[in-house]
Amino acid sequence: MYAPSSDARDLWLMSSRDCSHEPLDLTYDRARFILTVHAGHGGRCRQYLAASAYCFRRTGER
Question: Superkingdom of the source (predicted)?
Answer without folding.
Answer: Bacteria
